[in-house]
Amino acid sequence: MTYDLAIIGGGPAGVAAGVYAARKRLKTVFITKDFEGQSAVSLDIQNWIGNVTITGADLVKNLESHLRAYAADMVDIKTNQLVTSIKKEGDIFTVTTTKDTYSAKTVLITAGSRRRELQAPGAKEFDNKGLTYCASCDGPLFADMDVAVVGGGNAAFDTAAQLLAYCKSVTILNRSENFKADPVTVEQIGKNPKIKILTNVEIKEVKGDAFVTGLTYLDKKTNQEHALGVKGIFVEIGSLPNTGFVKGLVELDPYDHIKIDHRNQRTSVEGIWAAGDVTDGLYHQNNIAAGDAVKALEDIYLYIHYKK
Predict the structure, then answer these.
(1) Options 3.40.50.620, 3.30.930.10, 3.50.50.60, 3.40.50.11420; which CATH number does 117-235 get?
(2) pLDDT by residue (tens digit) across 127-179?
(3) pLDDT category, 43, cuts 50, 70, 90?
(4) Which of 19, 260, 300, 304 stands 20 to 30 A from 27 (CA)?
């Protein structure tokens, strides 16, 4: 059969789109490896609107149960599958996965991204034990504590700005002399008396027992190692969008994010939309991803019913 819509990805964006697709009576195939987004490992999420606090595990359960409650005979949920390619023939898309092939009139890509992980001894061992990749999710857990931010781009300085609101001190560690962040951002945040900025440093090891207690870093200018005592380490060294299966099909930016029309989430290929972390949007958060997916779904509905 040919579906009205194929949704690729099972995080907040994909689920939001799936719920709206069911309510709008669009025959949809929902393809995902699982329902776990990057926030799945967070112990305490305080910015998911509608919940004062929720764990990442509970958020995942709620997303899946919400979609299944509405899916009925409209949304066919296909889990444990990864999309390997999308091809367009005329007005129909062929979506190939690791298990099957599906046909659809339209496609919404919500495949998310994966964090670029810190490559240092101890980083994996203390992941989610004081080392985190999501300040908006976990930052408030470190109130009145000394923390570190690894990175030198806008995301790193935005994270530092968030943490300065409630942390005792924030140390930014950047691997090079220059920052990728906007100069005005560096200047403004650098004026805060609670911040310390270190450049030309390399993280050598994450230290701890049950939880993070600090890190060691190499000062590449002096070739000396130093210890830094912190309770939290926030890694902001970039993310990698999951867009390998659409390379050569839709237009991507230099970082492999899908370029979209931000009014409606349309891509460079007619019939394909994208929402969430796979896009070149300025901000990537759960709430934004869900909202952008709903925006896309509204446009997809009009496209299917009124394009001709």
Answers:
(1) 3.50.50.60
(2) 999 999 888 778 899 999 999 999 998 889 989 999 999 999 999 999 999 99
(3) low
(4) 260
Tell me the average pLDDT across 276-290.
Answer: 92
Q: What is the average pLDDT value for the chain, to the nearest integer?
A: 94
What gap in Å lies between CA 84 and CA 235, rounded to an integer? 29
Q: For the CA atoms of 168, 174, 203, 226, what is the dihedral angle to 10 degrees?
A: -60
Rounded distance between C-alpha atoms, residue 193 and residue 55, angstroms: 33
- Structure letter (DSSP) for residue 18: H
For residue 273, give both structure tokens: 């939309």
Farthest-apart Cα atoms in the chain, separation = 68
Domain boundaries, the chain: 2-114+239-306, 117-235
Question: Residue 128 burial (CB < 10 Å; 0-12/13-18/19+)?
Answer: middle
Q: Which two tokens stand for residue 86?
A: 């999308």
CA distance 295 to 275: 9
pLDDT band at 14 (very low <50, low <70, confident <90, very high): very high
Question: pLDDT of 52-79, one tens digit each?
Answer: 989 888 999 999 999 999 999 999 999 9
| Second CATH level (architecture) for the domain 2-114+239-306 | 3-Layer(bba) Sandwich (3.50)
Tokens of 192: 């805060």
Q: Which helix or strand (DSSP H or E) is residue 240 part of?
A: strand 239-241
